[in-house]
Amino acid sequence: MEGTGKQGGDQLSIKKSEPVLIEPQTRTHSGFFFLSNLDQVITNFVHTVYLYKAKKGGGGHDTLSDIFKQSMAKILVHYYPLAGRLRLGSDGKYNVECTNEGVLFVEARANCNMDHVDVQVITDDHSETTGKLLYRSPGPENILEMPLMTAQVTRFKCGGFALGVSTSHCMADGISAMEFIKSWAETARGMPLTTKPVLDRSILRSRQPPKIDFPFGQYATAETSNVSNISNPFQGEQILTKCFLFDSNKLAILKNMAMEDGTIKSCSNFTALTAFVWRARCKALQMNPDQTTQLLFMVNVRSKLNPPLPEGYFGNGVVISTCLGRAGELIKNPLSFAVEEVQNGIKMVNEEFVRSWIDYFEEMRAKDVPLLSHFIVTSWTRFQVECADFGWGEPAQFGCANLPKDSVLFLPDGKEKKGINLILDLPVTAMSTFQELMLL
C-alpha cells in the first residue's frame, strides 16, 4: 500500500505494510463496557501525529517496531476496552463489547528524510501529508466494524520516525487520549504507570428521570438561520488550512487590547485569542450584521463536578459551551465585548450544567439537530506532549491530522509552551482577509 503527499513541490511517498492486530498481552475482561452520554456526542476519530528524531546510537528498525508492538500489548491490559469494538444497543446508544480483538498496527517507510516534513506540514497541510502518516481503513467507514484505535509507525531515511495515532472519540477525548499515549510511552521505557486509568464511566450516568435546567442555546436553530448565505460568496473556492503563530508578545498585545477600555480586569490567553478569532472570522466571511453566529468550545469538567472525576479518568470529560452573538455587534464593539461573552460561557459550566448536558443527550440522542452558522474552538495548549517519550526523547513535532470543518484548533508552540499555534480553514478569499486581520 502506498500514499503520497506534497511538501514544497517534493513528493512524499510512503509505503505501508499490511496492518496487524495487537491484542492485550493477557486475556482481559469480556462482556459489555458502558459509555456515558458524553462519550456519544462525537463519534469520529481523534488523529494525532508525533515526529521523533533519530536516537543516537539507537537500535535498528526491527527494534523500533518491536518496542511499539510489545508495549502496546502490555498497556492494553490496563486499557482493555480499546481492544474491543463498538456496538449499537436497542436503545440507540453505543457501548463497547470487550472482544480482546486488539488495536490495529501498521509499519511504513517514507522515501525522504524527516527534515523534509517540517512543522508547516504538521499544521498547514493536514490532508496531503499528515494524512499519509496515519492508517485509515480503505473503503466506506463503518464505526461498528473499525478498531477503536490504530497506530502507524513511519520510518524516515537517515533515522527518525513518525507515530500516527487514531483514537475513537467514543473512547477518549483529547485529554484522555494524551494520557493513554503517556502511559504507552512509560510502558515502552519499562517504567511503571504514573497514573493508572480509571475505567468506570457510570459516574456520568444520566439522572432518572432526566432533569434539564439549561436552555442549551447552541441548538437554537431558529435564531441562527443562515441570513448571510455564507456559502454563496465563496462558492467553488478552494478551502485552505493555515497556521498562525501567536507568540508571547502577540498574546500580551491581545490581552492588553481586551482590557484597554476597562470593561474587563483580566483575561486568559484562551479567552482573548478565542474572542479575537471569533470577530476576525465574522469579518473574513463577510457576515451580514444581523447574522447570529455561534461560538462553541470545549470545557474540561473533570474538576467542576462534586466530587471531581478521579485522577486518570479515561473517557470523555468535556462538554460544549456556547456563545451566541450578532456579527455586527461583535465587529463594531471593542474586543472586550467578545472576551466577556467567552468568559461568561466558561463561567456557566458548573455541576448542574454538566448534569443537565448529560440528561439533555439522554432525551435527544435519537434526533438529528443541525448546527447553523457555528464554529468550534478546541484548545490542546495544555497537553503534556513532552510525556510522549517512547525512549527517543520527546517529540520534535506534534500535530492534529483531521481539523473538522468550521473549527479552530490551538496547539502549544515550543518547549516552553509560551506561544499558541492557531489553525483553521477558510475559503481562499476569506483566508486572505483573515491573514490581514492577524497582523497585530
Automatic annotation (TrEMBL):
A molecular function (GO) term: acyltransferase activity, transferring groups other than amino-acyl groups
InterPro entries: Plant_Fungal_Acyltransferase
Full protein name: HXXXD-type acyl-transferase family protein
Xref: Pfam families: Transferase
Superkingdom of this protein's organism: Eukaryota
Protein species of origin: Populus tomentosa
Family: Belongs to the plant acyltransferase family.
